[in-house]
From TrEMBL:
Molecular function (Gene Ontology), one example: acyltransferase activity
Source species, domain of life: Bacteria
Matches recorded under PANTHER family: (R)-CITRAMALATE SYNTHASE, ALPHA-IPM SYNTHASE/HOMOCITRATE SYNTHASE
Pathway: Amino-acid biosynthesis; L-isoleucine biosynthesis; 2-oxobutanoate from pyruvate: step 1/3
Origin species: Sneathiella marina
Descriptive protein name: Citramalate synthase
Substrates-to-products reaction catalysed: pyruvate + acetyl-CoA + H2O = (3R)-citramalate + CoA + H(+)
EC category name: transferase
CDD domains from the UniProt entry: DRE_TIM_LeuA3
A Pfam family this chain is assigned to: LeuA_dimer
Family: Belongs to the alpha-IPM synthase/homocitrate synthase family.
UniProt entry keywords in alphabetical sequence: Acyltransferase, Amino-acid biosynthesis, Branched-chain amino acid biosynthesis, Isoleucine biosynthesis, Transferase
Amino acid sequence: MERERLYLFDTTLRDGAQTQGVDFSVEDKTNIAKALDKLGIDYIEGGWPGANPGDTAFFNNPPELQNATLTAFGMTRRPGRSVSNDPGLSAILDAKTPAVCLVGKSWDFHVDVALGITIEENLELISDSIAESVRQGREAMYDAEHFFDGYKANPEFALACLKAAYGAGARWMVLCDTNGGTLPDEVERIVTEVLEHIPGSHLGIHTHNDTENAVANTLMAVKAGVRQVQGTLNGLGERCGNANMMSLIPSLVLKEPFKSMVDTGITEEGLKSVTLVSRLLDDILNRSPNLHQAYVGDAAFAHKGGLHVSAVEKDPRTYEHIEPQIVGNKRHLLVSDQAGRSNILAQLREFGLELDPKDPKVDRMLEEVKEREFKGFSYDGALASFELMARRRMGLVPKYFDVESFRVQVERRHNARGEIVSVTDAVVKVMVDGERYLSVGEGNGPVNALDAALRKDLGKYSDYIDDLRLVDFKVRILTSGTEAVTRVLIESTDKSNKRWFTVGVSPNIVDASFAAMIDSITYKLYKAGAPASLQ
């Protein structure tokens, strides 16, 4: 069967910007657009010209794209305005993008309540706006807002909206599940019925994730016959997000029936960059990646149980639906209190350490892991700490510095303006090459202050850790009561953007934090090849 072309339309720069806590700068938008272009996306929706200064600035100086078509988003003309006398429509067309996507009402309820006009007038808004876009040489798309709700309420009117756009020359009619409430079987049925009136080569699908079905709904629409899919990087979007392009791309390329039905234009190299692009977005947003995200998450191919690890090592297909390298990810064989010897050996190989399975060190290491996890440690999420522990047992980690003592003081007081503030000071004494260094740091909390003090002066090691940053800090209380045990997990990174996790456990939260911090610095020094201390 000859495959049909399926077009990928990314809306991260508009829909993604509606995510709570997300605010793209113009530079962010440009960098994301370039990454999407390199990935192999067909259309990149840059935003809404005129809606805000950031979007306007982006379209005033758009990035040069090699593959993708830059698209401007906006509304059809307003009631009572002509296409030549509507500032909103003019701003969209003035952006001079090769394509425009115009949103319009397709639910008669909204036409009556929100617009307060007749059904006939609404159809004129759609056809006039699309026709003007086409007249100006743009590839026009009609974004049928709330299409599925509108179709269920009044299928004749919803179809009439699509036909008005199609008749005016729209290249794509995009069926939107705007509130994310439609389920996969409904999507397939409705799309199949729409195909009797509009060819699938002119239909797109845009789904929200309010029932956790955005990806499933999109796939069912493709199966039914639509040939444009819209989504966002990592599923960003308002409320619960949009269809996740990072899940859609591998599923469409690798899974049946889609890989036999459609050609997305994503190359083998493009597919291998999916994980990289996903994590690039998280870096831009300065947030931790979702470890459990399908295909691209750090735990997507992670195996913890000893029996699972044994099976995966013999044949990965036992517990993995694809090879992780296909999407640029990698397999992780975790070490925990559920681990067997296979886990230990596999993880050591990841570190470049080859041990004979019969070596007594393996059994001792396994017992130590289980004993330490019983006390509260967790190594499946802190591989840097586990690697240090393993290498120390093998005599491979040099001694860099000794911490003689540390002290933290938190003071709550009134500042010069009479405001109540909390100030934290930390003092750390370390020995490097037989010389004592005393450093004082100030921060917005004990961990921040200790980090500032410890890294203020580490003698000859200061340059090695100059780019080290602590990017996340998680605390878990393992037991209740006044003698509770606390586990602290610290995530660190450096200029290479490599991330590593270390763990500390203690009845004292500051002590646990400091232990995890020491492991993080030691790991950085070891990986940087820092020399051992002279004493």
